[in-house]
Amino acid sequence: MSKFEPTRRDVVKGAAAGVVVAAASSFDPAKQALAASNVVTGYGVTTSQLKDWSIMTASIGLEMQWTGTNADIGTYMRDVISNDLGETHDIFIFDGGTEDILGPKGHYAVLQEDHPELTLWDRTSDDWKRTDLLKDAAGVQYGVPVIGNGDSFGYFPDKLGASADGMDEISFEMLYESEVTRGRCATDQSWLLSGSEMAHYCKHHGRVEIEDATDCTGAEMRQVVDIAIEWKKAGQFRTLHTAFEEQVQLLANREVDIINCWEPATKNANLELGADIVKYAFTVEGYYKWGHGAYMHVKAKDRGNVDNIHKMLNYYMSGEYRAYQAEQRGYAGPNMDLGIEYATANGWSEDQIANLAWTEKKVNKKFEKPFFGKPAAIHAAEMEEEWQRFLNV
After folding, report:
1. What is the model's pLDDT at position 137?
2. For the chain, which ranges sit under pLDDT 70?
């Protein structure tokens, strides 16, 4: 965990970059301190956003001022700690696991489960709300569930010789060491995603003896990286990507045939290429498990806007958010039945409603395979150190 501790160098680098600081400075803390403000400020992953927040404003009267970041947990943790974003932001959304550190360290507030604005908490399934991705090691509940999925990769079925309906189970072999796709593959630059998936692949096929693929010891990760370096030297990867926009571009431009990516990247690429051209894989080996939690910062409790912040937390469990999130991003989440009810009551098309039902069915199908994921791994520093060897080849 020491890798996430702020240092003077981290602060200086953050100030030099200016991106998050500049975004945060656009908010006036004094204004945010006004009681009963209908503005809620948020910071976190881009994929948790609605593409149009005015939908929410029309239904519950709140306005969201959102600052987005990518999926790099190190960047996120340093921004929250070093740049003290709790001074200007109420709600934080990131992959589950950050609460293990940011909760006990006094950044995330313990969730007030009986708050009157948290009306959907009791009816939300324990499978979503009581997951270890929202609680710390001591079982303290910090977050509400937002979205979740099992990540794999996007691909063009015709390039892989797979069924056009996307129902085939595709092995990660096609991404890592297949002559069919060599030179036409892309994977994420971070150890958190690519490194964990590579480790699980090696474990699944008996290439390396690993106890926990998402929390490899240095010796275990060294063996995985040695194998990954051979893949890289063989020319398997056309590029390593770092951002969601790159994922979409690589697919939409047909620069790759297969790519480790987030599922919304395939949906966005298909908006340019045509319906169902790119598929998101059901896999042989399993999926990288993740779930986004929404957390209130402890400093927000002193700004007189706690009721509206809880109303916002509740919205993430609502049918309206569930319907639009699944429609726009392809992700499931808690209370999927409310999403279908919302779409039906608001006159969505039969195709849209069927897509919501498919989203729920899709996630259930993925649960038949192993799920693995641990953003705040104990051996994170060792894994990242070994991963640097892969990046430096």
Report:
1. 83
2. 1-36, 375
- Amino acid 41: pLDDT: 97
Instruction: Output the CA angle 267-133-389, nearest 5 degrees.
Output: 75
Q: Which residues contact 121 (CB under 8 A, 6 or more apart)?
A: 113, 129, 144, 314, 317
- Identical fold at 2-149+290-348 and 153-285+372-392? yes
pTM of whole model > 0.85? no
Closest CA to 292 of 153, 79, 129: 129
Across 71-105, b (16+ Cβ under 10 Å) vs e yields bbbebbbbbbbbbbbbebbbbbbbbbbbbbbbbee
In sequence order, what DSSP letters do the residues of 89-137 get, joined into one string? Answer: -SEEEEETTTHHHHTTTTSBPPP-TT-TT-TTTTTS-HHHHTSTTSB-T
d(CA 22, CA 28): 12
What pLDDT was estimated at residue 331?
Answer: 84
Q: Answer for the pair 266, 272: CB distance below 8 angstroms, yes or no.
A: no
Q: Which fold has domain 153-285+372-392?
A: D-Maltodextrin-Binding Protein; domain 2 (3.40.190)
**Is 2-149+290-348 a CATH 3.40.190.10 domain?**
yes
Mapping DSSP to helix (H, G, I), strand (E, B) and coil, where does residue 332 land?
strand
**Residue given tokens 């950044």 in the structure block:** 107
Residue 207, both tokens: 């290439």
What integer pLDDT is reported at residue 173 of this predicted model?
98
Contact partners, residue 175, CB within 8 Å, separation at least 6 = 153, 181, 185, 187, 258, 259, 260
- Rounded Cα distance, 159 and 255, in Å: 12
What pLDDT was estimated at residue 23?
A: 40
Give the single-character DSSP code of 141: B
Residue 382 has phi, psi (to 5 degrees) of -65, -40
Q: Which residues of 290-318 are buried (b: 16+ CB within 10 A; e: fewer)?
A: bbbbbbbbebbeebebbebbbbbbbbbbb
Could you tell me the residue ranges of all domains in the chain? Answer: 2-149+290-348, 153-285+372-392
Contact 100, 293 (CB under 8 A): no
